[in-house]
Write a structure and sequence with these properties.
The structure holds 2 protein chains of 2 kinds.
Chain A: E1 3-10, H1 16-30, H2 34-55, E2 62-69, E3 73-80, H3 108-115, E4 118-124, E5 127-135
Antiparallel strand pairs in A: 1-2, 2-3, 3-5, 4-5
Helix pairs in contact in A: 1-2, 2-3
Chain B: E1 2-7, E2 11-20, H1 24-36, E3 41-52, H2 54-69, E4 73-77, H3 81-89, E5 97-98
Parallel strand pairs in B: 2-3, 3-4, 4-5
Antiparallel strand pairs in B: 1-2
Helix pairs in contact in B: 1-2
The chains are: A alpha+beta, B alpha/beta.
């Protein structure tokens, strides 16, 4: 089944369970298999939490999530009107480092890239637009 | 996320159930702190953990560093395939002990 839905949230980490529940419901309706649903949820958590923690500099604001999915592919687009920020410019962590040398954190956007087939960022109409695409 | 202490400190084993995400990972860490403070070793049984985000990875790395620094041991047990894949792609399988 083709799913096309736009969800509106307050960018607040406390909303995360609601975000992930709705995502899972819509992806399941589309026929997305369980392993891909988990990987997409991880990517969506990282992006949503980034928006909640950083986009509005300590204040809250809106975060919109557009989901288009069918039985073979999902495209999930995030929009926020916070400060311009392209997370894809962040350098990937060194995943070969020993435990004692590895910094705590810094894996969020790396996971988004690993979980997705495509990730795009654009700044449009004073909004950060981040789109992930996953085939399954 | 819920958990059960199946073996008390100093040989601490904790069976975790549910999701290790941005909200639940700090909760698990703070609630286990009194037990961890008394533990020589910690095993996390992840048989019923079906989801791990970067916040869960952050918790695992924090525990690994802590036990290593204090001369103890930290290990994971019964990892589900989806979680295993995340540990593999982030290089965590090379730095964590898996029983």
């Amino acid at each position: 089944m083709n799913v096309a839905v736009t969800l509106h949230f307050t960018a607040d980490t406390q909303k995360l369970p609601e975000v992930l529940d709705q995502l899972d419901t819509h992806l399941m309706s589309a026929g997305c298999p369980e392993d891909a649903r988990m990987q997409l949820a991880v990517a969506v958590e990282e992006i949503f939490v980034n928006i909640a923690n950083y986009a509005y500099s300590g204040k809250t604001g809106p975060a919109t999530i557009n989901i288009k999915a069918d039985a073979h592919k999902a495209s999930i687009c995030f929009a926020d009107s916070g400060f311009p920020y392209d997370p894809l410019k962040k350098e990937d962590p060194n995943i070969e480092q020993a435990a004692e040398d590895r910094p705590i954190g810094g894996l969020g956007i790396f996971l988004v890239k690993e979980m997705s087939d495509e990730v795009h960022y654009e700044r449009r109409d004073d909004m950060n637009i981040l789109t992930i695409v996953k085939k399954y | 996320m819920t958990y059960e202490i199946t073996s008390p400190a100093p040989e601490l084993t904790v069976a975790v159930k549910g999701r290790l995400d941005t909200l639940t990972s700090p909760k698990l860490e703070s609630e286990l702190e009194p037990s961890i403070a008394k533990a020589r070793s910690l095993v996390l049984d992840l048989a019923e953990v079906d989801y791990l985000s970067s916040a869960g990875l952050r918790l695992l790395l924090t525990l690994q560093k802590r036990f290593k620094r204090e001369g103890g041991s930290f290990a994971l047990r019964n990892i589900q395939p989806g979680v295993m894949e995340i540990l593999r792609m982030t290089g965590f399988l090379k730095i964590l002990s898996v029983e």
